[in-house]
Design a protein that fits this description.
CATH superfamily: NAD(P)-binding Rossmann-like Domain
Structural class: alpha/beta
Order of helices and strands: EHEHEHEHEEHEEEHEEHEHH
Number of strands: 12
Number of domains: 1
Low-confidence stretches: none
Helix content: 25-40%
CATH architecture: 3-Layer(aba) Sandwich
Bound molecules: NADP nicotinamide-adenine-dinucleotide phosphate
Distance between the termini: 30 Å
Shape: globular
Radius of gyration: 18 Å
Number of helices: 9
Largest sheet: 6 strands, parallel
Length: about 280
């Protein structure tokens, strides 16, 4: 199997490359230089020229607040370029794994979202990722695709919430963190293993994949601080106290029913994932 991985300078793409290398899968990592997603035509030509058997499309415009001001660029990168990747995959008979997000849902209520629940993003980034999902479905009439929605991503290679919180906790006695947004953290090392399993299968479809268990951002911050052996107090606050340019969903609970039905293993509990992540960054 020959794999093409996009976004290898980011958190997930980096770990997908590691997971594939550990499985002795031939993997080509694409960066912005060879595959600029703001240029969908070049993107399509690049995928076609590599002729992979599977594409792990991890690259995306991920600056959620900036996207409110860069709507067009965000939609080109996450929507149009994803369509270009999907068209190339369909033409050469490659499988596609497209990474999507909990942000495709409105984020209201308290129940777990099923994969076929109605989508209604509450910000530009979410709308662009949904446009990417739609482009995949439209281009890949063969159905040889996986749409994998994840959330609250952290990995050793890149910026994320835990890293930011630990940086702040080094110098502060107290941090205020929102506790009215609830979801599941996802360690890219764990998600990458699942994606590699998917690529080796023909169980195409739409999946939700996060570490198990749910928490608030405040609980995640408190767990990371405690595990690091720091004493910084986390004071929970409501999101009204932290206005951001882009609206955030309050409910990011994602049901794993489709993973179970397909026989894929769920990811480990989020607290265990945080423990292993901290060990990984300490050993770097
Ligand atoms: N982070 C989260 O909390 C979260 C939550 C749900 C879903 N997701 C999805 O999960 C996937 C992986 O996220 P992540 O956290 O690993 O992302 P990340 O660390 O922000 O990395 C994004 C990657 O995309 C590349 N990229 C951005 N714009 C590009 C462009 N115009 N052309 C080519 N490459 C471009 C970046 O390259 P450069 O290094 O050159 O900028 C980087 O390699 C994404 O599809 C994201 O939408 C993320």
């Amino acid at each position: 199997m020959k794999a093409l991985v996009t976004g290898v300078t980011g958190q997930l793409g980096f770990d997908v490359m590691r997971a594939l290398s550990a499985r002795d899968v031939e993997a080509i990592g694409a960066t912005r230089k060879e595959m600029p997603l703001d240029d969908p035509a070049r993107t399509k030509a690049f995928v076609t020229s590599v002729k992979p058997d599977v594409v792990f499309h991890c690259a995306a415009y991920t600056a959620v607040d900036r996207a409110e001001d860069e709507r067009e660029l965000c939609h080109t990168v996450n929507g149009s370029a994803t369509g270009a990747v999907a068209e190339a995959c369909e033409a050469i008979g490659a499988k596609l794994i497209y990474i999507s997000t909990d942000y495709v849902f409105p984020g209201t209520g308290e129940r777990f979202y099923e994969t076929d629940d109605e989508t209604a993003p509450c910000n530009v980034y979410g709308a662009s990722k949904l446009a990417g999902e739609r482009a995949v479905r439209k281009a890949m009439t063969s159905g040889r695709f996986f749409i994998v929605r994840t959330s609250w991503v952290f990995g050793v290679h890149g910026k994320n919430f835990i890293r930011t919180i630990l940086g702040l906790a080094e110098t502060r006695d107290e941090l205020t963190v929102v506790d009215d947004q609830v979801g599941s953290p996802t360690y890219t090392a764990d998600l990458a293993e699942l994606l590699a399993d998917m690529a080796a299968s023909e169980k195409f479809g739409v999946y939700h994949a996060t570490n198990e268990g749910i928490c608030s951002w405040a609980a995640l911050a408190a767990e990371a601080i405690r595990r690091r052996g720091l004493r910084t107090k986390v004071t929970p606050v409501s999101s009204d106290m932290y206005p951001t340019k882009a609206t955030r969903p309050k409910n990011s609970r994602l049901s794993k029913a489709s993973l179970d039905a397909a026989g894929f293993r769920r990811l480990p509990d989020w607290k265990d994932a945080v423990r292993r992540y901290l060990m990984e960054i300490e050993n770097k």
